[in-house]
Write a structure and sequence with these properties.
There is one protein chain. By secondary structure, this protein is an alpha+beta fold. The chain is 25% helix and 29% strand. It contains four helices and ten strands. The radius of gyration is 18 Å and the shape is globular.
Length: 230
Amino acid sequence: PEDTLAFRNETEWVYGRDLVTGRQVHRRREPRPSYTLRCFVMARVVRQFHRHAVFDPALPSPGMDELRRRVRRVLATSARSDAGAGGVVRIPGWENLRAFSESEGAMIREEAGGAWQSYVQRSHAWLLFPFGRASREREARRIARDAMAGRGPVVHVFTFPALTINHALVVAEAAEEAGRIRMGCYDPNDPGALVPLDFDVARGGFEMAATPYFVGGPVRAYEVMRFPWR
């Protein structure tokens, strides 16, 4: 949890399950929350800080203007690559991203980007591409390897053309057991716990656990923010 954001991406809807049909239902949240539709933005921010920033609690925090400049430097980096020749950006005064975002969450939200960035993603074109069974398993195993190596892969989880879920998660841990590749994911909607995302090898598909915004069940998924083309 120290590598994740303390604040959450609020949902614009309140979700539930129809007791008769079992289908997911929803109604608009009132009053409308102010920080919504930014799951891809927050996943990207977590990835950028993980790859391009280092926290140093032994040093005093700089003034707000300098701190904002350093945050902007982190957010100007590529989420698809590790720190380059310029090195990492040092954030003095805090132990980790969780503590930093608890203290300076408003500033991070201001700098992270708008909700439109969750929709204008080059990777969204892959929604339309069918992944065969072998491709799905290769994708799941690559995501798991990246998670176990500490790379924090970002995964797009969806049910297109249905609209029951269209979400971004960051895979924090993975293991294979009993014919399933089990992954625990940072969820921008709920930073307090890891949401389970499994790949059933025999069925050849992903499954996501029930959450307050999804009834749970089969989903489609692929990694984003890794390749130039997605």
